[in-house]
């Protein structure tokens, strides 16, 4: 303990003996005998390390000292932020007291791992030992939701989210609920997430050893099903994927479902739509469609006021004709509606025909399984990368609403449903309102009690609705843009950690959880599952293997960007 720097019960400085080294994130402990209480343990994490010449007065003295012409000593000091005082007698450590690197027992006590009855491996610390998060702050017991921020492409936000899911499913904390606990992942970046159930060919013995030290098996996800939109123009509704042929289902909504479930509001799911004057008109038209649409045949087509519609374009044309005629418009809107408002509504609606036609249709057999569902596998992946942004918003909004309502109707929070959603700043922006934002706010504020846990990722937390970020018990930051790191939304990162986040390497994350007052620097292991088609080993699961095998097995897949590991 240094005597030249003031120590407090919250932080103190230490000096290093010659030949000794500490680095950032090391855990250190010291003890002090307090009269009436006995020995008090003070533990903390190293947040700053400095070295200087003691005795130098000018910058140029360094050259004289190096040549031996001027006597001086090299001194290394480190700042320690206190994480735990046990028992809770908040007195400062005394100058001259010895400080040690924490052993296994002291380390667990310093980081509260000893009181985590249900803990999830997060990865390895810089000391090569496992780091954990308390599952009580993930499953809704004492908190829920995860917010992950970082620069696109180098922050490995999606990779960390999938590892966190893997750790939850395989660490044993779910016990008997593991088989029924589900995850719903929205994939917007190529086909990288479509092979989570394939072993990674690039996994080496060193990576397997890391999984062993974390207490996790080094294997792929065991139960995965992929949902993809139909190929545009394909009359059979074949899933639009290039590299995966098994365990893939097409998803779409029939015109009957579109009208009965009042999905029109999700066509106008941009925040700008709520600010426009036609937002009330959207609800009125959706209500009329629900009341007037009648099923036609077995393909999901509808008849509205005597006109049959088999495609989304047909339905839009019907609405256009009806709303532009004054008498019919009054019947649709129930009141006088300015023609300018109607035209703005129709312009926006017509622009949705091309992006939504493949997924809103009435030309395929109604009895086919065509909806996104989480009952088929432990991990359900909704592939959105082939859809325009307008269609992506529609799918995310409708699927989230359906799953949230299903959990509400079940009447119980168990089994849990984890929802992984990237680009959260696009779906729940800070400014404006939209149907998707309403659902995400509902998930953030009520999902804990319903067993719906959001794992949201975004490039900029400063652009995400505050209530969503503030309801996240666990916050994670990867590589950050320097301007973004200076925002108040990252106040949970100490200044030194903010600076480090701007130069963090891919695979390094800073994780804050309520029990530990200092964010932990975590290095999570190389994925044991394929992160792109070229890494995928032979599908090990018989659940999705077609009779006779895959005739395309072994052929090279589509090359995506190499993940930053």
UniProtKB/TrEMBL annotation:
Segments of this protein annotated with the region Disordered: 535-565
> What Gene3D superfamilies does its record include?
P-loop containing nucleotide triphosphate hydrolases
Q: Could you tell me which InterPro entries the record lists for this protein?
A: P-loop_NTPase, T4SS_component
Q: What PANTHER family does this protein's entry cite?
A: SLR6007 PROTEIN (PTHR30121:SF6), UNCHARACTERIZED PROTEIN YJGR-RELATED (PTHR30121)
Q: What is this protein called?
A: ATPase
